[in-house]
Design brief:
There is one protein chain. The chain has four helices and nine strands, in the order ββααβββββββαα. Strands 1, 2, 3, 4, 5, 8 and 9 form a seven-stranded mixed sheet that branches. Strands 6-7 form a two-stranded antiparallel ribbon. It is α+β, with helices and mostly antiparallel strands. The chain starts with a strand and ends with a helix.
Length: about 210
């Protein structure tokens, strides 16, 4: 599978990225916690050990939870940052992190909305169809302050939009009708304990 790391093509990338190898598992916040419903703070200090450690922890936490992306407020950190390890519809694996992201979507006249099933690590066990544009661009910087431009199509475009939503205090539940939101919350109540058990088991399998 072709791989792009931080928006750039690379020869290969291990299934468990080096960041995850260095990281520790953190608790994932659940919908209803206040940090998920407020806009996150801009990152202002770059190149610090603390920022690198946070990114490493987020990668491992995302991997243990079988996620495609994870925002900082999903590990109870109030910063504009997310990590991702997500395929697009052309079979390219996208891996990386981005800080202080700004989302750009196609103009309304050229925008194509796609309804597809979407889940969220902070809404454990629920999947609901959510309309998203099939293309997206995110501009920001990496942990050292170097500018990044990440372009996504298909499922990866959906991931980028989902994660930026988190950083402005929204979950995909906010995009649903009342009926669909109620259904998602019902799914979560029915399945969350099984999901939590799976995460514990996977972390244990990694010796974490």
């Amino acid at each position: 599978m072709p791989v792009r790391h931080g928006g750039r093509a690379v020869d290969t990338r291990p299934a468990l990225p080096p960041e995850a190898e260095r990281g520790s598992v953190r608790r994932i916040t659940v919908v209803g916690e206040k940090i998920l419903s407020r806009r996150c703070q801009e990152v202002t200090e770059f190149g610090t050990p603390e920022l690198s450690a946070l990114i490493d922890d987020m990668f491992l936490t995302m991997y243990v939870a079988d996620g495609a992306g994870l925002a900082a407020n999903q590990v109870d950190v109030d910063l504009r940052l997310f990590v991702y390890d997500c395929p697009d519809d052309e079979g390219v694996r996208h891996v990386g992190h981005i800080i202080n992201p700004v989302l750009e979507l196609p103009a309304p006249g050229s925008r194509r909305l796609v309804d597809d099933f979407e889940g969220c690590l902070s809404v454990p066990g629920a999947t609901v169809a959510v309309p998203r544009t099939d293309r997206a661009v995110v501009r920001g910087v990496d942990k050292d302050g170097t500018p990044l431009v990440i372009e996504g199509t298909g499922y990866f475009a959906r991931c980028l939009q989902h994660e930026v939503d988190h950083l402005v205090g929204h979950t995909y539940l906010d995009r649903l009708s009342k009926r669909d939101r109620k259904d998602a919350l019902r799914q979560m109540e029915e399945r969350r304990e099984d999901v939590f058990a799976q995460r514990v088991a996977k972390a244990g399998g990694l010796g974490r």
